[in-house]
Write a structure and sequence with these properties.
Length: 349
């Protein structure tokens, strides 16, 4: 990949990318979905990229799968489908396109490639990793199997293809409890998120044993933060992602996947809400929910924040950063991901 100055100069040779009032006006409808959180001058700088990317998508028969943690100009401006990890995986398996651009992190792009091997999958930034995916290798899975013989391995989708291939089934935060409960064995191994596993264990009749990985965004929240915040701003609804430690989830009014959180806030419309998760979540739904005051601190995922309009345009333009998964690994990993998708569909999730 070129460095940023080279990339910028190459892109500006091909596209009109100067801040533009005219393009901002042309995409006024798109801007209306984020004008509570993106200022007009910022929109003037984004609009030329939104225009160029949307044109190029048509020319290349490409779709952009955007995770709920993308910034608003990506989430609303160029994504064809948005959602949580489970929704994006399901979409990757049936979307009609030649190219998928994954506006998310690397394990998501691998999941798309595993499910759609015939499609070209592009990652805007190959360094958009994940602390959970980095915490375990296939050897770690074998270590857990040796420690708990016969117990099935349920791995979070936030893992590499090799880890998925070494597991029995995958899960996401929106189906983890149901997947664990559906296992035949009394003891179930969950990897690599210790907190998701503990949160599942608190609601399951299974003996859940787990790997000690964690998400650097969600592990920072403490129960004291929530108690202090409630005291400081009474009436605030506290909504936590299940990657948070169990004592944080216990203090929250609701816990769910990123799409579960969006659904809860959309249905409940609390006067004040604090989303105990990544910062872009609140920004992406602020315009749709003008009656909700999103308050309080949030944490940024440095990996998700590596994705930008500029890098999306670059990979669509150049075809660089294609994601490949070894065919034998992909076949085994597909088994784990497909088992999760099939079970989720069967359970109506
Ligand atoms: P979900 O979108 O599945 O809730 O996962 C959150 C996450 O951390 C993705 O990186
Ligand atoms: Fe990984 Fe956490 Fe970032 Fe999600 S938010 S990509 S789990 S580090």
């Amino acid at each position: 990949m070129l460095d940023l100055p080279q990339l910028r100069s190459e892109l500006s040779d091909h596209y009109d990318l100067e801040p533009s009032e005219a393009y901002a006006e042309e995409f006024a409808e798109v801007y209306a979905r984020m004008d509570r959180v993106v200022s007009p001058p910022e929109w003037m700088t984004y609009a030329p990229y939104v225009r160029a990317i949307n044109r190029l998508k048509k020319e290349r028969n490409a779709v952009i799968l955007g995770h709920n943690y993308m910034t608003p100009e990506i989430f609303h401006g160029v994504s064809d489908f948005v959602g949580d990890s489970l929704q994006l995986a399901m979409k990757a398996s049936d979307v009609e396109a030649d190219i998928i651009v994954q506006a998310g992190v690397h394990f998501m792009a691998e999941t798309s490639k595993i499910l759609s091997p015939q499609k070209t999958v592009l990652m805007p930034d190959m360094e958009a990793g994940c602390s959970l995916a980095e915490s375990i290798t296939a050897a770690g899975i074998e270590e857990m199997r040796a420690k708990y013989p016969g117990a099935p391995v349920v791995s979070y989708v936030n893992t590499t293809a090799e880890v998925k291939a070494a597991s029995d089934i995958c899960c996401t935060s929106s189906n983890a409890l149901q997947i664990v409960n559906a296992m035949e064995s009394d003891t179930v191994i969950m990897t690599p998120d210790q907190y998701l596993a503990q949160n599942v264990a608190n609601e399951s009749h299974k003996n859940v044993v787990y790997w000690p990985g964690s998400c650097i965004v969600h592990e920072q929240y403490t129960a004291k933060d929530l108690i202090d915040y409630r005291e400081w701003n009474p009436g605030t609804r506290l909504i936590a992602h299940p990657e948070c430690p169990p004592e944080v989830v216990a203090e929250a009014d609701f816990s769910g996947s990123t799409s579960g959180i969006i659904k809860y806030v959309t249905e409940e419309k609390p006067e004040k809400a604090m989303l105990i998760t990544e910062c872009s979540m609140a920004s992406n739904i602020a315009d749709e929910l003008p009656e909700v005051d999103f308050v309080g601190p949030c944490n940024m995922c440095p990996y998700m924040k590596k994705i930008s309009l500029e890098k999306i345009l670059w990979v669509l333009h150049s075809g660089e950063n294609e994601v490949f998964v070894d065919a034998a690994v992909a076949e085994k990993a597909r088994h784990s991901v497909q088992a999760m998708i099939d079970l989720s569909r069967k359970l109506g999730l």
